[in-house]
Amino acid sequence: MASQILQSAPAEPAPGRHEQGPEEAARRDAEGQAYFDKVMAEDSRIEPRDWMPPAYRKTLLRQISQHAHSEIIGMQPEANWISRAPSLKRKAILMAKVQDEAGHGLYLYSAAETLGQPRDQMMADLIAGKARYSSIFNYPARTWADMGAIGWLVDGAAICNQVPLCRASYGPYGRAMVRICKEESFHQRQGFEILLELARGTAEQKQMAQDAVNRWYAPALMMFGPPDDDSPNSKQSMAWNIKRFGNDELRSRFVGMMVEQVKVLGLTLPDKDIRFNEDTRKWEHGPLDWDEFKDVLAGRGPCNAQRLERRREAHDDGAWVREAAAAYADKQRARQAAQQAEEIAA
Ligand code: FAQ
Questions:
Q1: How many CB atoms lie within 10 A of CB 71?
Q2: Residue 6 has what pLDDT?
Q3: What's the number of CA atoms in the CB half-sphere (13 Å) around residue 9?
Q4: How far does the centroid of ligand 1 lie from the alpha carbon of residue 260, in Å?
Q5: What pLDDT was estimated at residue 20?
Q6: How far is 274 from 259, CA to CA, in rounded Å?
Q7: Does the pLDDT of residue 18 top 70, yes or no?
Q8: Range in 17-31, 209-223, 303-317 the model is least confident about
Q9: Which residues are bridge partners to 170 per DSSP?
């Protein structure tokens, strides 16, 4: 079904065909809109060269680029602990995890580029402080137990939020999410295992694990975004089959998962109001500090300035790599062109 639809997809005009008359442009837009509506109704997929409403493109670019930036900035709290991990094995695991996050950023920047935004521009917006990234990465990682809490709670929340995105209506985004979610599952397990080992260790180690869970719990719940009543984008994103569930629904599911897992850890969640509402069949949690969330989004979180500064330094430090890669690509192109010219002449 999906492939049948895609075969008849009206494409964006080919390069050089932009100077069409207003009538042709209107006809193309009407055909494109009809096709787009059909894809949405059939819960199928839009691909990069298909016609799409400008607002759909803009929403996807917003969400995918923010998501990519989150993965890249999200490397910092954990990268900071690689050299201090308590054993060679822990260092190797943490290094692999942080590298995975870099990979996620790359898949997502690639997906965003298919919407027409150059990667350089996205990166420039991030380092200029104009782009958003997830609120969660503006909190400090104070102890080794924070590596456990980040893996268990932050990657756990990311999985809960992102598994439904594997079915996002935009093909490149949905496909990138499949691999990302598989890797996030490994990340969550490793975080859980760090906490489990600490929780089964000395009284001090158990306390360190509990303290980390206490500090990361509420920020992890806020990762799902503002309550539905205060979420300007959810309704349209759900109508376009980008988001499949509202922020509150996913937050409630996450709380339900954590309630069970924390028992295995022998720790507690710092929330005395958690309960399962038999009438709504949903998990409920205590109040969250949405003023703090807004402050973090406005750049006033505990680590906002530090995270951006580090990102700028890393960008500057990487300039020679980008220059070398560009010079290599130029050389390859020149070599190929010379080879082709030789073949034609022969
Ligand atoms: N942080 O109308 P909504 C990870 C903004 S990856 C910052 O509800 P929407 C892996 C939102 O952008 C974590 N800003 O928005 C990892 C909007 O502002 P705008 C990232 C937030 O898009 C683990 C405004 O508030 N995951 O953790 C946040 O429908 C460990 C109104 O909100 C994704 O990006 C927030 N938490 O729903 C990596 C998943 N929440 O743009 C390293 C994909 C909301 O209008 C280490 N994204 N805002 O100016 C999504 O699912 C959605 O974009 C939401 C927000 C759910 C984040």
A1: 23
A2: 45
A3: 22
A4: 25
A5: 72
A6: 8
A7: no
A8: 17-31
A9: 46
Q: Which of 63, 82, 97 to mutate to test the pocket of ligand 1 (most atoms within 8 A of CB)?
A: 63
Residue bearing the CA closest to ligand 1, atom 55:
225
Q: What integer is the mean pLDDT of 96-119? A: 97
At residue 216, the pLDDT reads: 98
What is the pLDDT confidence band of residue 13, given thresholds at 50, 70 and 90?
Answer: low
- C-alpha 318 – ligand 1 centre gap (Å): 27
Question: Ligand 1 atom closest to Cα of 161?
Answer: 51
Residue 21 is predicted with a pLDDT of 86
Stretch 56-76: mean pLDDT, rounded? 98
Tokens describing residue 73: 């900035």
CA dihedral for 28, 29, 32, 34, sign (positive or negative): negative
